[in-house]
Amino acid sequence: EFNEDFDYKNMHKELLSLIENADKNQKVYLLLDEVQEVENWEKCVNSLFETQNVDIYVTGSNSKLLSSEISTYLTGRFVQIPIFTLSFSEFIDFKKHYFPTNTEISLEKYFEQYLKSGGFPFIAKTNHNQEENYQIIDGIYSTVVTRDISKRHNISNLEMFNRVVRFILENLGKNFSAKTIFDFFKSQQRSISIETIYNYLAWLEEAFIIYRCNRFDIQGKNVLKTQEKYYLSDIGFKYSQFGFSPKSIASVLENIVYLELRRRGFTVYIGKFADKEIDFIATKQNEKLYVQVCRTLPDDSDREIDNLKLIKDNYPKYVVTMDSLVCGNVDGIQIVHIKDFLLMKFL
């Protein structure tokens, strides 16, 4: 780690010394954390990259260094590695590692814990109760949303900004736009411009609080620019503000599946086929799959299965559900319990 009293020339000198003293027969890896604390840090990194046989990994605070800005500093020289909170598989690994005596816990119990707490690593490795977990996550929420974003962008009306964030949390997995948010606040006699709402959404994306999921017209084979959905980088953010509610499970399941597909390297869209919706189309190079998500299948069997039947290609199609009694295969469509879907090896 670096501090603000350390300039890039000192940084270069110190790192070069470490490289020269390293084993010449081994690859050198530099891990530079909070690199934004050093002014003109990119000059040091670019120089080392050009003159030394090193791999360099750079991280930084969202409040001072955005991933989009790294591309400006290191044009054509970097690969961005997105970091997500724990997957369900990783969550189980954490629990087994930190609580090795809990050998009787079933997959169903692990998933219940994951569903109600999210994937922050420090939550997975503790035995706090639900309320304590949400208080801890609220601390992260306050740091990133209230401090980092508002400080970076000089947000003057912090109350309205927080109201917009809460609107997003409450409408998780629903189609809405900046105009939708504008109309909602207008109905409450609250004044906010659409431009400001666009800015808020963009800043929340930059800070990795939310992810935008665009719609894709399956027949027209093009990305649509309206009525996208937003998902959270971790469902714990929603719980930290509203607590856990069984009424929100359907949207939370969507969020969990969306993140799992992203973790596995897929580009994810909402599917549109005529006037029907497919929850997710996931693509990666030559791979593609279609996914419908529902809490219990009998309530939604026509929509979930029939919508997938409209798509005549041969790519895998899944209905992911919490209903354990209806798993199987219907006309080539695989009905899978969500815990099993999240642990599939071939995705």
Quick structural gist:
By secondary structure, the protein is α/β, with parallel strands linked by helices.
What is the topological layout?
Layout: H1 8-20, E1 28-32, H2 41-51, E2 54-58, H3 67-73, H4 88-98, H5 107-117, H6 121-124, H7 130-153, H8 158-170, H9 178-187, H10 194-206, E3 210-217, E4 222-232, H11 236-242, H12 249-263, E5 267-273, E6 276-284, E7 287-294, H13 297-309, E8 317-321, E9 328-330, E10 333-337, H14 338-343
Helix pairs in contact: 1-2, 7-11, 9-10
Jot down its keywords.
eight-stranded mixed sheet; 347 residues; two-stranded parallel ribbon; alpha/beta; 10 strands; 19% strand
What does this structure look like?
The protein is an alpha/beta fold. It folds into two domains: 8-73, no CATH class; 88-343, no CATH class. The chain is 46% helix and 19% strand. It has 14 helices and ten strands. The strands form two sheets. The chain has an eight-stranded mixed sheet with strand order 4-3-5-6-7-8-10-9, with helices on both faces. Strand 5 (267-273) and strand 6 form a beta hairpin. The longest helix is centred in the middle third of the chain and has 24 residues, at 130-153.
